[in-house]
């Protein structure tokens, strides 16, 4: 998959658990796992906005396009 989800990197930088992140964003930990593992087919802009707000980052910090 050419889009790589880097949530785990941003969580590690902030020393934030998946559970805390999920609660603050308004997702279940299972849905965060789906996003982290690259199995999500789509992400709502409202969810992306919430993730960026919680992590104080830009969408490009969470999503990376990789050629190949």
Please, could you describe this protein's structure?
With 68 residues, the protein is mainly alpha-helical. Helix content is 57%, strand content 9%. It has 5 helices and 2 strands. A two-stranded antiparallel ribbon has the order 1-2. The longest helix is centred in the last third of the chain and has 11 residues. The protein is globular. It starts with a strand and ends with a strand.
What would the keywords be for this entry?
57% helix; mainly alpha; two-stranded antiparallel sheet; 68 residues
| Alpha-carbon distance between the two ends | 8 Å
Total helical segments = 5
Q: What is the residue-averaged pLDDT?
A: 95
Beta fraction of the residues?
5-15%
Radius of gyration using CA atoms only: 11 Å
Nutshell version of this structure?
The chain is mainly alpha-helical. Helices cover 57% and strands 9% of the residues.
Write the layout of secondary structure elements.
Layout: E1 3-5, H1 7-14, H2 18-25, H3 29-36, H4 45-55, H5 59-62, E2 63-65
Antiparallel strand pairs: 1-2
Helix pairs in contact: 2-3
